[in-house]
């Protein structure tokens, strides 16, 4: 099963990914998590990506496409995978299609921009795993600590309000066109396309996704 999550920054892609990967037993491929790991490790890729990410801009298509192609070729992706944060431009979607990497299900999570700005201020993440929490809506078992490792949670550097607004602007310009793009893919019978109301509680969104995907 090959699933793709589509939605604005903060719509809840990473949150639902945690649930979907366990439910369907497929690995999550989060380009954002991969880039943050590279930043943390101080690799050349990380050094290049850091400034771009902190400014709320998109990393180059070429770089991201190479990263994802390499990842989906790994053994654990043979049974399927869950794309989180990729593709997010038309050239990225075209590169997938021309490489024969097709998607079975597109899952769009829809949240209005103003809700997102409010939500991001309360996000906390576990840097090691990418697990996501919220100080009100999705609390860790112990305040400020990751549920699995007990390690400290952190605030993402790009969650500052002005950066969130920049990311939203870029989402509308460069990623939103993928709604129409994958709508056409679905209309030709090559994938399913389902849109979910991401303003509902986390568990309610998960329940609807399972109901749609089976
Ligand atoms: P990336 O990490 O992909 O960030 P993003 O797309 O901006 O999305 P987020 O991770 O911010 O949000 P999310 O939808 O996962 O929401 P979450 O579940 O965390 O990318 C970061 C950067 O890397 C980009 O800006 C770019 O520079 C670069 N990059 C990555 N991929 C790229 C690509 N393909 N091409 C080029 N550049 C790329 O939830 C947010 C908060 O809300 C959490 O606190 C959560 O607990 C809470 N929450 C979730 N669901 C609910 C709910 N239903 N109700 C209430 N609260 C909720
Ligand atoms: Zn995310």
UniProtKB/TrEMBL annotation:
Pfam families named in the record: ADK, ADK_lid
Region annotation NMP: where it falls in the sequence: 30-59
Pathway membership: Purine metabolism; AMP biosynthesis via salvage pathway; AMP from ADP: step 1/1
GO biological process: AMP salvage
Principal subcellular localisation of the protein: cytoplasm
Statement: the UniProt record of this protein carries the keyword Kinase: yes
Domain of life the protein comes from: Bacteria
Record-linked InterPro entries: Adenyl_kin_sub, Adenylat/UMP-CMP_kin, Adenylat_kinase_CS, Adenylate_kinase_lid-dom, P-loop_NTPase
Signal sequence segment: none
Catalytic activity: AMP + ATP = 2 ADP
Compartments reported by the entry: Cytoplasm
Root EC class: transferase
Binding sites annotated in the UniProt record for AMP: 31, 36, 57-59, 85-88, 92, 156, 167
Keywords annotated in UniProt: ATP-binding, Cytoplasm, Kinase, Nucleotide biosynthesis, Nucleotide-binding, Transferase
Sequence ranges assigned to domain Adenylate kinase active site lid in this UniProt record: 123-158
UniProt keyword Kinase present: yes
Any one of the GO CC terms: cytoplasm
A GO MF term: AMP kinase activity
HAMAP family xrefs: Adenylate_kinase_Adk (MF_00235)
Assembly behavior: Monomer.
UniProt protein name: Adenylate kinase
Organism this protein belongs to: Shewanella violacea (strain JCM 10179 / CIP 106290 / LMG 19151 / DSS12)
The gene coding this protein: adk
């Amino acid at each position: 099963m090959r699933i793709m999550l589509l939605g604005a920054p903060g719509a809840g892609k990473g949150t639902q990914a945690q649930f979907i990967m366990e439910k369907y037993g497929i690995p999550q491929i989060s380009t954002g998590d991969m880039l943050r790991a590279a930043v943390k490790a101080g690799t050349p890729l990380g050094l290049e990506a850091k400034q771009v990410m902190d400014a709320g801009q998109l990393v180059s298509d070429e770089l991201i496409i190479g990263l994802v192609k390499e990842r989906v070729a790994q053994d654990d992706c043979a049974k399927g995978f869950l794309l989180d944060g990729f593709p997010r431009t038309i050239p990225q979607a075209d590169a997938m299609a021309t490489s024969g990497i097709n998607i079975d299900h597109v899952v769009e999570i829809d949240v209005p921009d103003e809700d997102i700005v409010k939500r991001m201020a309360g996000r906390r993440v576990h840097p090691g795993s990418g697990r996501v929490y919220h100080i009100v809506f999705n609390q860790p078992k112990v305040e400020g600590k990751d549920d699995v490792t007990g390690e400290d949670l952190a605030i993402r550097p790009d969650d500052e309000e002005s950066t969130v607004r920049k990311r939203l602007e870029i989402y509308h310009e460069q990623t939103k066109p993928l709604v129409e793009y994958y709508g056409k893919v679905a209309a030709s019978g090559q994938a399913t396309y389902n849109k979910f109301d991401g303003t509902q509680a986390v568990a309610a969104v998960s329940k609807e996704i399972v109901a749609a995907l089976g």
